[in-house]
Amino acid sequence: MVGIAEVARAAGVSKATASRALTGRGYVADDTRARVETAAAELGYIASTNAASLVTGRTQNIGVVLPHVNRWFFAEALEGIQAGLLEHGRDLTLYDAEPGTASRSAIFDTFLGRKRFDGLIAVCIEPDEREAVRLSTLGKPIVSIGCYDIGTSAVSIDDADAAWRATKHLIELGHRRIAFVGGEADGGPSTLGDARRIAGYLAAMQEAGLSEDILHVVSEVSMPGGYAASVDLLGDSRRRPTAIVGMCDEVAIGTIIAARRLGIHVPADLSVVGIDDHEHADMFALTTLQQKPRDQARLAVDILMHHIDGDHVEPRRIWEPARFIVRSSTGPLDSRQSSLDRRAATP
Amino acid sequence: MVGIAEVARAAGVSKATASRALTGRGYVADDTRARVETAAAELGYIASTNAASLVTGRTQNIGVVLPHVNRWFFAEALEGIQAGLLEHGRDLTLYDAEPGTASRSAIFDTFLGRKRFDGLIAVCIEPDEREAVRLSTLGKPIVSIGCYDIGTSAVSIDDADAAWRATKHLIELGHRRIAFVGGEADGGPSTLGDARRIAGYLAAMQEAGLSEDILHVVSEVSMPGGYAASVDLLGDSRRRPTAIVGMCDEVAIGTIIAARRLGIHVPADLSVVGIDDHEHADMFALTTLQQKPRDQARLAVDILMHHIDGDHVEPRRIWEPARFIVRSSTGPLDSRQSSLDRRAATP
DNA sequence: TTTCGAGATGGAATCGTTTCCATGGATGGC
DNA sequence: GCCATCCATGGAAACGATTCCATCTCGAAA
Q1: What would the pLDDT profile of B220-270 be if each residue is shown by its tens digit?
Q2: Measured between beta carbons, which residues in chain A are less than 8 angstroms from residue B70?
Q3: Structural domain includes residue B329
Q4: Span A249-276, pLDDT tens digits
Q5: Is the CB of A45 under 7 A from strand C?
Q6: What is the torsional sign of CA B71, B77, B79, B81?
Q7: pTM of this prediction?
Q8: Is residue B342 assigned to a domain?
Q9: B contact test, residue of A2, A4, A50, A91 with most B CBs within 10 A
Q10: Which residue range(s) make up the domain with B117?
C-alpha cells in the first residue's frame, strides 16, 4: 500500500507538510498543497484511518445502538442516520441490542467498551441502570432518538401528547368506549415510548370522565400482534369498543385487517387511529399522527456532529412536531352505535 | 486510558510478554498468563483496536453492503449478520447502497476504499461493471447473500426455481391465466433476483404451453406496490387472471388486500402465491416458498470467517433450500372460473 | 558430559499517520 | 532599520499495540 511518505517524496515535500496539505490543518502554501494533492491522486493514496485514529483519537466512525432493525421506525431511522453520516464522511457501526438478550449484554459489556466510535446514536434504547452507567461512563457524546433521555441530547416526538391527541380526536367524534391496543401490561420493559403513549391515552380518557371505559389490550407491537389482539377484542360483540387507539400504525393496521375479516366496517362500525404514519398507513386510509424517523435521524446526526466538533455544546432536547393526518379510518359515532352503546351503558 | 505498558508493569513483565499473554499468541508460562490477565482485569485494560490493527492489518470489523434496510429480507438478513458477527467478536459497519443514488457512488468510490474491514458481506448487491471491479480490487474476502455472484462465495435460494415451482403449483391446480406481479419491466436494474424470478415464471408457463397467457405486471416491490398494481389488474374483470404469482410475499400480500377490497375471494376466485415466508405470510394464510434470510446470514458469516482466518479457502456456492408452504391462499380453479375462462378463451 | 531444541522472556523495531518544535524567510508596523 | 508576527516547512517524537530477534534456562537425547 502507498503511504504518505511516498506521496511526500513524489511531491518533493516532507511527510509533515504532506499531512498538513491533505488534512487541511496548519499552514501550507497553495501551490504546495496542489502538488501534494495531485501526487496523492496519482498514486491513489488513501490514508490509513487506523494510523490517523491512533494519534488523533478520532475514529471518524459513529456507533448506532438500537433494539431492532426489522421494524419500520428503526429501519427508517437507520437509513436516515446512514444517509446523514455519509454526508459527513463518517462510517456507521451497528449495534443491534434487543432488550433481554445475551447479545445486548455483550454489546454493553464489551463491544461499546472498545470505543471504536467518536459518538453514539441511541435509538429507542431505554437503558436499565447498569446500561445507563455504561453509556455515561464511555465519555463519548451521545444523542438519543426516541425516548431515552439522561442528560444527553435527544430528539423525539412527544409520545404522551401524541396518544393524548389521538384519543381526544376519538372522544370529540363522540366515542366513549375507546380501547388502547398494544404494548405490555403495566410495568413491563418498554421501548418506543410505549409507557408514555399509554399514559397519554389514560390522561385523555380521565380528563373526559371516561375512566370507566378505559381498556388497555396487551399485544405484541406488530401488525400480526395487533391483528391477533383485535380479533379477540372485536370478536366479542358485547364488550366491543367503538374506537381503538393503536400503539403504533403497525398495530392499528392489524386492527383494521382484523375488523375487515370480522365484517366490521371501518369507520362506520369502528374507528381506528394510529401513531407513526407508517409507509402502509395511506393504503389503509389510516388516521394517524405523523412522525418522520428519517428527519429525526438527520437531526440527531447534525447534533452529534456539533457535540463532536464543537468544543463544548450544551445538550439539546428537541421535540419534533407530530402532525395529525386525518384519513378515513375514523369517523363520528353513528346513531346505531350510540344506541347500542347507551343500551350497554344502562343495564 | 490504561495501556498495555501499565498492565505489563503491574504484572511485572515486559510489554511483549503481556501482549502474548493477552492475545494468546506465542509462548507464555501459565502462571505468567494468569498474572497478566488479572492485572489487565483489575486495571480495566481494553486494547486499542487501532493500534492493534495498525500492526496486524486486521480490523476485527466486517462491512455489510446492502441496497435497503427497510425491507423484510434485508432487515432480517442484517439482524442475522449482526448476531453472527457478535458471536465472533466482530464489529459491523453498515453501507446502505441504494441503487442509482449518490450515496451508492460515494460508498463504492470512497468509503469501501478505506478498507476499514477484514471482509465484506454483500446482500443482494447486483453490482454494475464499475462496482464489480471496485469490489474485486479491494483484495478482501467477500461473501454475497442473495444473487450476485462473481467468483466470491455466495449463498441464496434458487430464485428461478422458486418462481418456477410457485407457478407450477398454480398450473397443477388447473390455473391457466396466471399473472406475475412485481418488478421492473424487462431490462430494468434489478435486485433481489427479480430477473431470475421472472425467468422462472416464464419458463414454467412456456413449459406448460401457456405462452399466450403470460402476463407480467410491473410494480414496485412492496406491499403498497403490489396493492396498487393488483387493484388495476383485478379491477378489469375481463382480463382478470385466476391466479397470481407475487415477486415476493410483500407484493402477494398487497394483492390479497386488493382482492379483499374488490370483493374477490381468495382462493375461491383468485389464487395467490408468494416467495419468502414473510413474517406476515401466516396472518394472510399465504401459500409461499420459504426462505430464511437469518439462516443465510449466519451461513454467510461463517463462510466469511473461514475466508479470513483460513489460509486460502476455495469460494463456495451454497443454494439454500426453499420449502414450499401451502396455506390457503391457493386452491383449485373452480368450475365457475374455468367456464368463464373457457368463454373468454373462445370468442 | 555435551548438545540440541523447546519454552519463556525482554528489548527494540515496526505499523502509518499527526503534531510538536525548531528554523528561516517574508511582511508590516513603528 | 529593527523587531515582532505570520507563514511555510522539515525533523523527530509521539500514538499503542504486535512481533522480530536475541538471550537464557532447563530437560532430554546422544
Answers
A1: 999 999 999 999 999 988 889 999 999 999 999 999 999 998 999 999 999
A2: 72, 75-76, 79, 279
A3: no
A4: 999 999 999 999 899 999 999 999 999 9
A5: yes
A6: negative
A7: 0.93
A8: no
A9: A50
A10: 61-157+293-320
